[in-house]
Amino acid sequence: MKNQRGAVLITALVIVALLAFLSVSLLYRTTTSAQLMTAHQDRLTTEQVGRNVIEYVLSDVDNLVNSATTTLTIPAELTSGYTVTVGTPVCVHAQAAAGYSLTQSIVPETVYWEVDVSVVDTITSAVAGYRQVVKFNYTAGSCD
Questions:
Q1: pTM score, two decimals?
Q2: Which of 2, 8, 10, 53 has the fewest other C-beta atoms within 10 Å?
Q3: Number of domains in the chain
C-alpha cells in the first residue's frame, strides 16, 4: 500500500511539473506572438504613411513638372512621428501623346515621372520605401 501511495505521489508530481511547463510555454508563446503582431502593425503603419506621402506628391502636377524650382512641403499631419524623405521627382520617359504626330507644331507628350519616398518610424525604427511611376499627358518639353 505504501508503494502505491509513493507511485501516486510521483505520478502527481510529474503531472504538475508537465502542467507548469506547458503553462510557461504558452505564456512565452503568447508574449512572442504579441511582440510579432506589434512589429507587424508598426510596419503596416509606416507603409501607410509612405503611401499617403506618395499620393500627396502625385496630387499636384507642379510637384513633378516644377520639381527643380518648387520646394515640396508635406503637411505635418501626414508625417507626425516619422522621418520622411522624398526624392526629387525624375522624368524617366516622354513620347508624343497618342493621336498626335511629331509634325504638328505643339504636340502634347505622354510623360512618365518617378517619385521615391522613404519613411522611418522615429520610435520603432520601422522602415518603408516606395517608388511610384505616374503617367499623364502634359505640354511638350516638360520632361527636359
A1: 0.67
A2: 2
A3: 1
